[in-house]
Amino acid sequence: MNSIFLRIEDLHKSFGNKEVLKSINFTAQQGHIIGLIGANGAGKTTIMKAILGILSFQGKITINNQEVSINQHQPLQSVGALIEYPGLYPYLTGREQLKLFSIGQNREKKVEDIIKKLRMEHFADQKTKSYSLGMKQKLGVGLALLNNPQFVILDEPMNGLDPKATKELRDLIVQEKKTGTTFLISSHILSELQRIADDVIVIDHGSVVTATTMNELLSANRKFYLLETNNNKLATDILLKNRYQIVNKSILTVAVTKNFSINNLLQLLLSQGIRINDIKQQDGDLEESLLQVLDKEGTKA
């Protein structure tokens, strides 16, 4: 079992009279990718800034068994981060900025390696004032990964990236994870998190709604059957009259509910003269799972 690399205990943060983080508790295992999910204003970026000791907070944060605070940054020597948008020097090239922040031994090699890993060769020697959003984002990620950190915090790292660059970054994150690097990633692109995250922390209004593995979150998701018949309109009417839950009428989609039996459904349709041309089972995705979690939380409130 992997060791706990990050531990957050009873984390609170207020700005004036507004409490934005309320008793946050979660851990991150070494070598895992953790997805931090929540709506805008939920508190994700504030959590990341607290971990980095950028702002004061109440509670306890430890990285590799060393405590972090606004006055104690020693544990952050092994941390790389991209928070919000990368702060770049507009009149330096990408390569020059990487050289500026490269530390330790083999500084030149680290710079060349990260340029190749992120496929930045064609713009690394341009001044960053001419960079597109995607180029800036790549350089920001490159700065976070530059010094081979043990722990990497990325806030919306896919912003501005085209599909090819997004896949390349996703593959790089998975590659770095295999070397033991731990990642905490916030992203609104849930389909990308679903592909790479081992664990998920869902934040809503400053509180942890759920902290679980990606597999467990998805396994609790609803399942569906997509049907194609010789008369979808009539089939829909028959199923609705028999209290089946139809979630999409244009593509006849039936939700799997308690005591659901696909055999009973098929027998019902066949008995009414409906011919089944095709049937597919479909699992809900991370977005569906997230909405279910937030709906349950809203019901409790």
Written account of the structure:
- The chain is α/β, with parallel strands linked by helices.
- The mean pLDDT is 90.
- The strands form three sheets. Strands 6-7-8-3-9-10 form a six-stranded mixed sheet, with helices on both faces. A four-stranded antiparallel sheet has the order 2-1-4-5, with helices on one face. The protein has a four-stranded antiparallel sheet with strand order 12-13-11-14, with helices on one face.
- It starts with a strand and ends with a helix.
- The protein is built from ten helices and 14 strands.
- The chain is elongated.
- A hairpin with a 2-residue loop joins strand 1 and strand 2.
- It has two domains: 210 residues, 3-Layer(aba) Sandwich (Rossmann fold), CATH 3.40.50; 62 residues, Alpha-Beta Plaits (2-Layer Sandwich), CATH 3.30.70.
- Keywords: ATP-binding, Nucleotide-binding, Transport.
Structural class: alpha/beta
Can you tell me the number of structural domains? 2
What's the CATH topology name of the largest domain? Answer: Rossmann fold
Oligomeric state of the chains present here: single chain
Query: Distance N terminus to C terminus?
Result: 36 Å
State the helical fraction: 25-40%
Count of alpha and pi helical runs: 10
Largest sheet, in brief, is:
6 strands, mixed
Q: How large a portion of the residues is in β-strands, by DSSP E?
A: 25-35%
* Assigned CATH architecture of the largest domain: 3-Layer(aba) Sandwich
Strand segment count: 14
Unreliable residue stretches: none
What is the spatial order of strands in the main beta sheet?
A: 6-7-8-3-9-10
CATH class of the largest domain: Alpha Beta
How much is the average pLDDT? Answer: 90
CATH H level, superfamily name of the largest domain: P-loop containing nucleotide triphosphate hydrolases
Label the overall shape. Answer: elongated
Tell me the radius of gyration. 24 Å
- Succession of helices and strands: EEEHEEEHHHEHEHEEHEHEEHEH
